Amino acid sequence: AACSFPKPKTSTVVRPAAARCRGPVSPAILEVPPGLIDPLLGVAHEEPGALAVAAPLVAIGARRLLAELETLREAQIEIEHSQQLYAELFDSAPVGYINLTTEGQIQNANLAACDLLGCERKLIVGKPLYSFVASSDMQTLTAHLRRCADAEAGVTATELRLYTRPSEQRY
C-alpha cells in the first residue's frame, strides 16, 4: 500500500514509519505543531527518500522530548509537594508570620499571626500592616520596610506594638 503525505493545516501526529501504512498505532503518539514537521513533509514531496532518512531522526528527537517532558513533570510534582509542605509548616508555626509587600500591605499571614491580630486571614490579607501597628511605632515599621527593600538577603527583624482595635494593645 502506498502512503501519501499531504501538507497538514493543523497539528501533525508523528508515528513510527511502519505504522503509517498499517493499522492501529499505540497511544504513545506525539502531537507536533505544524511548523515543526512541515519542512520535512515538503522535502518528502520533492525527494521521497528524504523522509525515510529524516524519520529516524525525528523519532529520536521525539523520544528525547518525551523523556525531558517526563523529567519536567516529575520536577513539577516535587515542587508542588514542597509548596504544600511549606504552606502546612507556615500555617502551623507557633510564631506569627506575615508576608508583606514593599509598601507594607499584608500578602499572607499564618494562623498564629491571625490569632495575634484577632482577625480571620481573609480579613487581614490585603490590608496594610500599618492598620494594626501602634501609632508610636509607625516610623519603626516604615524604617523596617526600607531596610527590607535595601537588604540583599538575610533576616530583618523589628519589634512593634500591635493593636486589634484602636483602644486595645495586643503585643
What would you say about this model in short?
51% of the residues lie in helices and 11% in strands. The protein is mainly alpha-helical and 171 residues long.
What is the C-alpha radius of gyration, as a whole number of Å?
30 Å
Mean pLDDT: 75
Strand percent estimate: 5-15%
Count of individual helical segments: 6
**Structural class, please?**
mainly alpha
Strand order, sheet with most strands: 1-2
Descriptive keywords:
51% helix; single chain; two-stranded antiparallel ribbon; disordered N terminus; 171 residues; 6 helices; mainly alpha
Q: In words, what does this structure look like?
A:
The protein is mainly α and 171 residues long. Helix content is 51%, strand content 11%. The protein has 6 helices and 6 strands, in the order βαβααββαααββ. A hairpin with a 2-residue loop joins strand 5 (163-165) and strand 6. Helix 2 runs antiparallel to helix 3 (48-92). The radius of gyration is 30 Å and the shape is elongated. The relative contact order is 0.07. Mean pLDDT is 75; it is low at 1-30.
